């Protein structure tokens, strides 16, 4: 088993007034050769967007993009003619493929907190696509719920992307122990603690800490206080 620990206070940061951003990996003006990506996971941004503000229309290409609002809602518009709201409890996926333009706006007066995740696709030049789903009724306490899977996976409850990657969300009571079996020996897992306290394979995590683990068949973790977890399993090569 190999591990890398990313404490919350070692992330890159940016403050644009309307946006306060935290970067787990090199992004925009934050560059760290030791923090370029984790396997096929390229971006994990923890963004706080002020009310009535947002990201103006901008392009993406050849990337699988997942957005998870933790507080508030996103107003999304794109060049594929989608105009949608994504609220807490929902997950959004967008395959940028050959190219797409989109904007993200906070329509509320309250601050929007969202996680933006980019995963490198299995190949370039794919057809752009968009989807979203409300997982509120599926997110049960003390279980890891699969919210994103590969297109080839048989889990019809999950959204799909063009990569052999899986995303899970889970909320756990204090003292709860969870075991996660990794799909293949070529995969690793990146565990991002949204809030609470967690101990995973001998490493203690607090709010917004993360740990990447690979070269193992399974991981075990315990919530040492009520905790909410994002687990991302990706190919390492």
From TrEMBL:
Domain Pirin N-terminal: 11-119
Magnesium keyword on record: no
Source organism superkingdom: Bacteria
Domain Quercetin 2,3-dioxygenase C-terminal cupin: from-to ranges: 147-234
CDD domains with a match to the protein in the record: cupin_Yhhw_N
Entry binding sites for Fe cation: 58, 60, 102, 104
Protein family (similarity comment): Belongs to the pirin family.
Protein name: Pirin family protein
Organism: Christiangramia salexigens
